[in-house]
Amino acid sequence: MGDRLYEEKLRWFKENEKPEVVLLVGDDSTLTKIALAWTNTTTKRSQRVNPLQSDSESEVWNWLWANTTYSRQDLLARSGVFEHGFEGKLAVLIGNRILYPDGTLNSFVQRFLREKVLRLFDTKSAKSRKTESY
């Protein structure tokens, strides 16, 4: 029962995303690094999911995270971020629902980061085409 409820509640958050959170990641390279590392960090739902006490949005979000395990050290290492200040930045990402407990990202943030990378490659490709034409 708890497993199904966990998946159902997580799905609700994914279906009700806010695009504005992209602004937080867009101007902060540390948040970007942690978000990117999150997608390469193994997460698991707890073996025994605690009972959900409330249906309030914030309580459900906290419940999902309380029933999720991941290695903080792996995330820290993968992100390349200094340990000082890491917890605060992670709290921003979790609190603003940019990171999901299943190891994924808010879809608007994910699209933003992909487009940023594609523009970077397109710019580099254009530069290399120019130098090849000389």
Provide structural commentary.
The protein is built from seven helices and two strands; from the N terminus they run H-H-H-E-H-E-H-H-H. The chain is elongated, with a radius of gyration of 18 Å. Helices cover 62% and strands 4% of the residues. The model has no long low-confidence stretch (mean pLDDT 92). It has one domain (2-132). It is mostly helical and 134 residues long. It has helices spanning 2-15, 22-26, 29-38, 57-66, 72-79, 86-95, 107-132, and strands at residues 43-45, 68-70. The longest helix is centred in the C-terminal third of the chain and has 26 residues, at 107-132. The chain has a two-stranded antiparallel ribbon with strand order 1-2.
As a percent range, the share of helical residues equals 55-70%
Tally the helices.
7
The mean pLDDT is 92
> Unreliable runs, pLDDT <50, ≥5 residues?
none
Strand adjacency order, main sheet: 1-2
Q: How big a fraction of the residues is strand? A: under 5%
What number of domains?
A: 1
Strand-pairing-aware structural class = mainly alpha
Shape type: elongated
Helix and strand run: HHHEHEHHH
DSSP strand tally: 2
End-to-end separation: 66 Å
